[in-house]
Specification:
With 372 residues, the chain is an alpha/beta fold. The chain contains 18 helices and nine strands. It folds into three domains: 93 residues, no CATH class; 146 residues, Rossmann fold (3-Layer(aba) Sandwich); 110 residues, 3-Layer(aba) Sandwich (Rossmann fold). The longest helix has 18 residues.
Protein backbone atom coordinates (compact mmCIF):
# COMPACT_ATOMS: atom_id res chain seq x y z
CA UNK A 1 0.00 0.00 0.00
CA UNK A 2 1.03 3.65 -0.43
CA UNK A 3 2.70 5.41 2.48
CA UNK A 4 1.07 7.97 4.76
CA UNK A 5 1.29 11.54 3.49
CA UNK A 6 2.11 13.46 6.69
CA UNK A 7 1.70 16.87 5.07
CA UNK A 8 -1.87 16.08 4.08
CA UNK A 9 -2.62 14.41 7.40
CA UNK A 10 -1.46 17.50 9.29
CA UNK A 11 -3.47 19.73 6.96
CA UNK A 12 -6.53 17.82 8.14
CA UNK A 13 -5.53 17.82 11.79
CA UNK A 14 -5.05 21.63 11.89
CA UNK A 15 -8.03 22.62 9.72
CA UNK A 16 -11.09 24.60 10.99
CA UNK A 17 -13.06 21.39 10.44
CA UNK A 18 -16.00 22.37 8.23
CA UNK A 19 -16.28 18.64 7.48
CA UNK A 20 -17.93 18.01 10.87
CA UNK A 21 -21.46 18.43 9.55
CA UNK A 22 -20.93 15.74 6.90
CA UNK A 23 -19.18 13.04 8.96
CA UNK A 24 -21.72 10.26 9.60
CA UNK A 25 -19.67 8.78 12.45
CA UNK A 26 -19.62 12.09 14.32
CA UNK A 27 -23.27 12.83 13.61
CA UNK A 28 -24.35 9.40 14.88
CA UNK A 29 -22.20 9.31 18.01
CA UNK A 30 -21.35 12.89 18.98
CA UNK A 31 -17.84 11.67 19.88
CA UNK A 32 -15.17 14.28 19.16
CA UNK A 33 -12.55 11.53 18.87
CA UNK A 34 -14.25 10.23 15.72
CA UNK A 35 -14.71 13.63 14.06
CA UNK A 36 -12.59 13.85 10.89
CA UNK A 37 -9.99 16.16 12.46
CA UNK A 38 -10.02 14.11 15.66
CA UNK A 39 -9.11 11.02 13.69
CA UNK A 40 -6.61 13.04 11.66
CA UNK A 41 -4.88 14.35 14.79
CA UNK A 42 -4.77 10.89 16.31
CA UNK A 43 -3.26 9.38 13.17
CA UNK A 44 -0.75 12.23 12.85
CA UNK A 45 0.46 11.83 16.44
CA UNK A 46 0.83 8.07 16.02
CA UNK A 47 2.73 8.47 12.75
CA UNK A 48 5.06 10.97 14.42
CA UNK A 49 5.76 8.48 17.23
CA UNK A 50 4.17 10.62 19.93
CA UNK A 51 1.42 8.07 20.63
CA UNK A 52 1.32 4.30 20.34
CA UNK A 53 -1.55 2.20 19.06
CA UNK A 54 -3.94 0.70 21.59
CA UNK A 55 -7.40 -0.73 21.11
CA UNK A 56 -9.23 2.51 21.97
CA UNK A 57 -7.16 4.50 19.49
CA UNK A 58 -7.57 1.88 16.78
CA UNK A 59 -11.34 1.90 17.34
CA UNK A 60 -11.47 5.68 16.95
CA UNK A 61 -9.31 5.63 13.81
CA UNK A 62 -11.55 2.85 12.42
CA UNK A 63 -14.70 4.95 12.89
CA UNK A 64 -14.48 6.02 9.27
CA UNK A 65 -17.03 4.81 6.73
CA UNK A 66 -14.80 5.85 3.80
CA UNK A 67 -17.76 7.84 2.48
CA UNK A 68 -15.57 10.86 1.63
CA UNK A 69 -18.31 13.16 2.90
CA UNK A 70 -15.54 15.13 4.60
CA UNK A 71 -14.26 16.14 1.16
CA UNK A 72 -17.37 18.21 0.39
CA UNK A 73 -16.23 21.19 2.49
CA UNK A 74 -12.53 20.37 2.70
CA UNK A 75 -10.22 23.23 1.59
CA UNK A 76 -7.43 20.76 0.73
CA UNK A 77 -8.23 19.38 -2.69
CA UNK A 78 -5.56 16.67 -2.55
CA UNK A 79 -6.55 15.34 0.88
CA UNK A 80 -8.18 11.91 1.05
CA UNK A 81 -8.53 11.41 4.81
CA UNK A 82 -10.20 8.03 4.32
CA UNK A 83 -7.07 6.62 2.68
CA UNK A 84 -4.73 8.38 5.11
CA UNK A 85 -6.56 6.71 8.01
CA UNK A 86 -6.51 3.38 6.20
CA UNK A 87 -2.74 3.59 5.59
CA UNK A 88 -2.18 4.82 9.17
CA UNK A 89 -3.99 1.81 10.64
CA UNK A 90 -1.90 -0.71 8.72
CA UNK A 91 0.90 -1.00 11.34
CA UNK A 92 -1.52 -1.61 14.23
CA UNK A 93 -2.18 -5.31 13.54
CA UNK A 94 1.50 -6.25 13.08
CA UNK A 95 2.06 -4.56 16.46
CA UNK A 96 -0.58 -6.84 18.01
CA UNK A 97 -3.36 -4.24 18.28
CA UNK A 98 -6.65 -5.40 16.78
CA UNK A 99 -10.41 -4.89 17.00
CA UNK A 100 -11.70 -8.14 18.56
CA UNK A 101 -15.10 -7.85 16.86
CA UNK A 102 -13.60 -8.14 13.38
CA UNK A 103 -11.34 -11.12 14.08
CA UNK A 104 -14.09 -13.70 13.34
CA UNK A 105 -14.67 -12.07 9.95
CA UNK A 106 -10.95 -12.09 9.18
CA UNK A 107 -10.75 -15.74 10.19
CA UNK A 108 -13.60 -16.47 7.77
CA UNK A 109 -11.77 -14.54 5.09
CA UNK A 110 -8.61 -16.59 5.58
CA UNK A 111 -10.48 -19.89 5.61
CA UNK A 112 -13.25 -19.36 3.06
CA UNK A 113 -12.18 -16.28 1.05
CA UNK A 114 -15.31 -14.54 2.31
CA UNK A 115 -15.83 -12.56 5.52
CA UNK A 116 -19.29 -14.10 5.84
CA UNK A 117 -18.05 -17.68 6.20
CA UNK A 118 -18.40 -20.79 4.12
CA UNK A 119 -19.88 -20.07 0.74
CA UNK A 120 -22.79 -22.07 -0.62
CA UNK A 121 -22.59 -23.91 -3.93
CA UNK A 122 -20.21 -22.08 -6.27
CA UNK A 123 -21.91 -19.42 -8.37
CA UNK A 124 -20.49 -20.08 -11.83
CA UNK A 125 -22.59 -18.78 -14.67
CA UNK A 126 -21.48 -18.40 -18.24
CA UNK A 127 -22.81 -17.34 -21.58
CA UNK A 128 -20.63 -18.26 -24.52
CA UNK A 129 -22.27 -17.36 -27.82
CA UNK A 130 -21.39 -19.96 -30.39
CA UNK A 131 -20.29 -22.38 -27.66
CA UNK A 132 -16.85 -20.84 -27.47
CA UNK A 133 -14.49 -22.59 -25.10
CA UNK A 134 -13.32 -19.88 -22.73
CA UNK A 135 -12.31 -16.37 -23.70
CA UNK A 136 -15.41 -14.66 -22.31
CA UNK A 137 -15.76 -10.98 -23.06
CA UNK A 138 -16.71 -10.02 -19.51
CA UNK A 139 -16.13 -11.17 -15.96
CA UNK A 140 -19.02 -10.03 -13.80
CA UNK A 141 -17.83 -9.83 -10.20
CA UNK A 142 -20.71 -9.91 -7.71
CA UNK A 143 -18.83 -9.46 -4.43
CA UNK A 144 -19.08 -11.22 -1.07
CA UNK A 145 -22.09 -9.30 0.22
CA UNK A 146 -24.31 -10.14 -2.74
CA UNK A 147 -23.17 -13.76 -2.68
CA UNK A 148 -23.92 -14.12 1.02
CA UNK A 149 -26.95 -11.92 1.54
CA UNK A 150 -28.79 -11.17 -1.70
CA UNK A 151 -28.58 -13.91 -4.37
CA UNK A 152 -31.54 -12.38 -6.30
CA UNK A 153 -29.23 -9.59 -7.45
CA UNK A 154 -26.86 -12.22 -8.90
CA UNK A 155 -29.69 -13.90 -10.78
CA UNK A 156 -30.86 -10.50 -12.04
CA UNK A 157 -27.37 -9.59 -13.28
CA UNK A 158 -27.00 -12.91 -15.11
CA UNK A 159 -30.44 -12.47 -16.65
CA UNK A 160 -29.63 -8.96 -17.91
CA UNK A 161 -26.31 -10.07 -19.40
CA UNK A 162 -28.00 -13.01 -21.14
CA UNK A 163 -30.66 -10.74 -22.61
CA UNK A 164 -27.93 -8.46 -23.95
CA UNK A 165 -26.10 -11.38 -25.54
CA UNK A 166 -22.94 -10.64 -23.57
CA UNK A 167 -20.25 -13.28 -23.51
CA UNK A 168 -19.66 -13.36 -19.75
CA UNK A 169 -18.55 -15.44 -16.83
CA UNK A 170 -19.33 -15.28 -13.12
CA UNK A 171 -16.48 -17.04 -11.38
CA UNK A 172 -16.28 -18.96 -8.14
CA UNK A 173 -15.29 -15.75 -6.39
CA UNK A 174 -12.62 -15.02 -3.84
CA UNK A 175 -13.14 -11.77 -1.95
CA UNK A 176 -11.50 -8.76 -3.60
CA UNK A 177 -9.49 -8.23 -0.40
CA UNK A 178 -11.08 -4.95 0.69
CA UNK A 179 -12.11 -6.20 4.18
CA UNK A 180 -8.58 -7.44 4.86
CA UNK A 181 -7.14 -4.03 3.95
CA UNK A 182 -9.74 -2.12 5.98
CA UNK A 183 -8.98 -4.27 9.02
CA UNK A 184 -5.23 -4.01 8.66
CA UNK A 185 -4.22 -7.40 7.26
CA UNK A 186 -2.25 -6.22 4.26
CA UNK A 187 -0.70 -9.62 3.58
CA UNK A 188 -4.08 -11.32 3.38
CA UNK A 189 -5.26 -8.53 1.08
CA UNK A 190 -2.27 -9.18 -1.16
CA UNK A 191 -2.93 -12.94 -1.24
CA UNK A 192 -6.53 -12.41 -2.31
CA UNK A 193 -5.43 -9.90 -4.94
CA UNK A 194 -2.90 -12.37 -6.35
CA UNK A 195 -5.54 -15.09 -6.58
CA UNK A 196 -8.04 -12.82 -8.30
CA UNK A 197 -5.43 -11.52 -10.72
CA UNK A 198 -4.57 -15.12 -11.65
CA UNK A 199 -8.22 -16.09 -12.22
CA UNK A 200 -8.93 -12.99 -14.28
CA UNK A 201 -5.87 -13.54 -16.45
CA UNK A 202 -6.76 -17.20 -17.05
CA UNK A 203 -10.30 -16.27 -18.09
CA UNK A 204 -9.14 -14.35 -21.16
CA UNK A 205 -11.73 -11.64 -20.40
CA UNK A 206 -11.04 -8.07 -21.46
CA UNK A 207 -13.53 -6.35 -19.17
CA UNK A 208 -14.21 -6.61 -15.42
CA UNK A 209 -17.63 -5.36 -14.31
CA UNK A 210 -18.73 -5.14 -10.70
CA UNK A 211 -21.86 -3.90 -8.96
CA UNK A 212 -19.98 -3.44 -5.66
CA UNK A 213 -18.33 -0.01 -5.22
CA UNK A 214 -15.84 -1.36 -2.67
CA UNK A 215 -14.75 -4.09 -5.11
CA UNK A 216 -14.41 -1.52 -7.90
CA UNK A 217 -12.31 0.74 -5.66
CA UNK A 218 -10.09 -2.17 -4.59
CA UNK A 219 -9.49 -3.40 -8.14
CA UNK A 220 -8.91 0.12 -9.48
CA UNK A 221 -6.88 1.82 -6.75
CA UNK A 222 -5.62 -0.66 -4.16
CA UNK A 223 -4.47 -3.49 -6.42
CA UNK A 224 -1.83 -1.25 -8.06
CA UNK A 225 -0.59 -0.33 -4.56
CA UNK A 226 -0.30 -4.08 -3.84
CA UNK A 227 1.65 -4.52 -7.10
CA UNK A 228 -1.26 -6.54 -8.51
CA UNK A 229 -2.50 -4.16 -11.20
CA UNK A 230 -5.05 -5.84 -13.47
CA UNK A 231 -4.63 -5.95 -17.24
CA UNK A 232 -8.34 -5.72 -18.11
CA UNK A 233 -10.63 -2.70 -18.19
CA UNK A 234 -12.52 -2.15 -14.93
CA UNK A 235 -15.97 -0.56 -15.03
CA UNK A 236 -18.79 0.00 -12.58
CA UNK A 237 -22.09 -1.80 -13.13
CA UNK A 238 -24.33 1.25 -13.75
CA UNK A 239 -22.00 2.61 -16.44
CA UNK A 240 -21.71 -0.77 -18.11
CA UNK A 241 -25.46 -1.40 -18.20
CA UNK A 242 -26.09 2.07 -19.61
CA UNK A 243 -23.51 1.25 -22.29
CA UNK A 244 -25.50 -1.86 -23.22
CA UNK A 245 -28.67 0.22 -23.50
CA UNK A 246 -27.03 2.84 -25.70
CA UNK A 247 -25.59 0.10 -27.92
CA UNK A 248 -29.11 -1.25 -28.43
CA UNK A 249 -28.33 -4.54 -26.71
CA UNK A 250 -31.00 -3.93 -24.06
CA UNK A 251 -34.44 -2.57 -24.91
CA UNK A 252 -37.41 -1.57 -22.80
CA UNK A 253 -40.14 -4.15 -22.36
CA UNK A 254 -43.75 -3.33 -23.10
CA UNK A 255 -45.33 -1.97 -19.89
CA UNK A 256 -47.22 -4.61 -17.95
CA UNK A 257 -50.23 -2.93 -16.26
CA UNK A 258 -50.56 -3.72 -12.58
CA UNK A 259 -47.09 -5.25 -12.25
CA UNK A 260 -45.46 -2.47 -10.25
CA UNK A 261 -45.28 -4.79 -7.22
CA UNK A 262 -42.65 -3.55 -4.78
CA UNK A 263 -42.52 -0.20 -6.53
CA UNK A 264 -46.06 0.66 -5.49
CA UNK A 265 -47.24 3.78 -7.33
CA UNK A 266 -44.03 3.93 -9.30
CA UNK A 267 -42.36 6.69 -7.30
CA UNK A 268 -38.71 5.86 -6.74
CA UNK A 269 -35.75 7.57 -5.16
CA UNK A 270 -32.19 6.68 -6.07
CA UNK A 271 -29.59 6.49 -3.31
CA UNK A 272 -26.11 7.34 -4.58
CA UNK A 273 -23.47 5.02 -3.10
CA UNK A 274 -20.68 7.25 -1.81
CA UNK A 275 -17.86 5.64 -3.81
CA UNK A 276 -19.83 5.67 -7.06
CA UNK A 277 -20.77 9.33 -6.57
CA UNK A 278 -17.59 10.86 -5.14
CA UNK A 279 -14.80 8.61 -6.42
CA UNK A 280 -16.04 7.05 -9.67
CA UNK A 281 -18.23 10.02 -10.61
CA UNK A 282 -21.06 7.64 -11.51
CA UNK A 283 -24.03 9.93 -10.90
CA UNK A 284 -25.88 10.51 -14.18
CA UNK A 285 -25.67 6.89 -15.43
CA UNK A 286 -28.15 5.25 -13.03
CA UNK A 287 -30.53 8.18 -13.43
CA UNK A 288 -30.43 7.90 -17.22
CA UNK A 289 -31.47 4.27 -16.85
CA UNK A 290 -34.28 4.99 -14.39
CA UNK A 291 -35.61 8.02 -16.26
CA UNK A 292 -35.85 5.99 -19.46
CA UNK A 293 -38.47 3.69 -17.89
CA UNK A 294 -42.07 4.81 -18.56
CA UNK A 295 -44.24 4.93 -15.47
CA UNK A 296 -41.41 5.47 -13.00
CA UNK A 297 -41.20 8.86 -11.34
CA UNK A 298 -37.78 9.76 -9.91
CA UNK A 299 -38.14 11.80 -6.72
CA UNK A 300 -34.71 12.65 -5.40
CA UNK A 301 -33.45 12.44 -1.85
CA UNK A 302 -32.02 15.59 -0.36
CA UNK A 303 -29.07 15.62 -0.59
CA UNK A 304 -28.18 13.41 -3.54
CA UNK A 305 -25.60 13.10 -6.30
CA UNK A 306 -22.10 14.13 -5.24
CA UNK A 307 -23.59 15.46 -1.98
CA UNK A 308 -25.08 12.08 -1.06
CA UNK A 309 -24.89 10.95 2.55
CA UNK A 310 -23.67 7.59 3.79
CA UNK A 311 -26.10 4.75 4.53
CA UNK A 312 -23.83 3.23 7.20
CA UNK A 313 -22.45 0.47 5.00
CA UNK A 314 -19.10 1.81 3.87
CA UNK A 315 -15.71 0.37 4.84
CA UNK A 316 -17.23 -2.83 6.29
CA UNK A 317 -18.70 -0.61 9.03
CA UNK A 318 -21.92 -2.63 9.29
CA UNK A 319 -19.93 -5.64 10.45
CA UNK A 320 -17.53 -3.85 12.80
CA UNK A 321 -19.93 -1.32 14.37
CA UNK A 322 -23.51 -2.46 13.64
CA UNK A 323 -25.30 -0.19 16.13
CA UNK A 324 -23.66 2.97 14.83
CA UNK A 325 -24.19 1.81 11.24
CA UNK A 326 -27.93 1.47 11.97
CA UNK A 327 -28.01 5.01 13.41
CA UNK A 328 -26.28 6.36 10.29
CA UNK A 329 -28.80 4.55 8.08
CA UNK A 330 -31.72 5.90 10.11
CA UNK A 331 -30.47 9.45 9.57
CA UNK A 332 -30.11 8.87 5.83
CA UNK A 333 -33.58 7.33 5.49
CA UNK A 334 -35.18 10.53 6.79
CA UNK A 335 -33.84 12.32 3.70
CA UNK A 336 -35.90 10.27 1.21
CA UNK A 337 -39.45 11.13 0.14
CA UNK A 338 -41.78 9.05 2.29
CA UNK A 339 -43.79 7.71 -0.66
CA UNK A 340 -40.80 6.52 -2.68
CA UNK A 341 -39.43 3.03 -3.11
CA UNK A 342 -35.66 3.07 -2.81
CA UNK A 343 -33.21 2.01 -5.52
CA UNK A 344 -29.45 1.83 -5.14
CA UNK A 345 -26.49 0.26 -6.91
CA UNK A 346 -24.52 -1.16 -4.00
CA UNK A 347 -25.08 -4.33 -1.96
CA UNK A 348 -23.87 -2.61 1.23
CA UNK A 349 -26.23 0.33 0.68
CA UNK A 350 -29.15 -2.02 0.11
CA UNK A 351 -28.48 -3.72 3.44
CA UNK A 352 -27.98 -0.44 5.26
CA UNK A 353 -31.28 1.00 4.01
CA UNK A 354 -33.32 -2.05 5.02
CA UNK A 355 -34.30 -0.34 8.25
CA UNK A 356 -37.93 0.46 7.52
CA UNK A 357 -40.93 -1.25 5.97
CA UNK A 358 -40.28 0.04 2.47
CA UNK A 359 -38.85 -1.59 -0.66
CA UNK A 360 -35.14 -1.34 -1.38
CA UNK A 361 -34.07 -2.72 -4.75
CA UNK A 362 -30.75 -2.82 -6.54
CA UNK A 363 -30.52 -1.15 -9.92
CA UNK A 364 -29.76 -4.46 -11.60
CA UNK A 365 -33.12 -5.82 -10.36
CA UNK A 366 -34.88 -2.86 -12.00
CA UNK A 367 -32.99 -3.56 -15.23
CA UNK A 368 -34.06 -7.18 -15.22
CA UNK A 369 -37.67 -6.21 -14.61
CA UNK A 370 -38.02 -3.50 -17.24
CA UNK A 371 -35.56 -4.38 -20.02
CA UNK A 372 -35.40 -7.24 -22.49
Amino acid sequence: MAEVNMEQLLNCALCPNMCRCECPALQATGREAVAPAGKGRLAALINEGKLNWDEAMLEAASYCLACRGCTIHCPFSELNLCDELLFSRMPARPQGVTLPQVDPYLNNLRKYSSPYGQKSDPVIKTNRPGERAGGEEVIFFNGCTSLANHPPSIEAAASVLLKAGVSFRMTEEDCCGYPALVWGDRELGRQLAEENKRKFAESGATLLVTNCPECWLTFSEYYPDLEQELSLEIIDGPSYFLRLIKEGRLELKEPDPGSSGELGAGVISYHDPCIWARTAGTISEPREILQAIPGLELNEAQPSGSLTRCCGGGSMFQLAFPDTAAAVASRRLKEFPSEAALVTACPFCREGLLQEDRPVLELVEILDRYFK
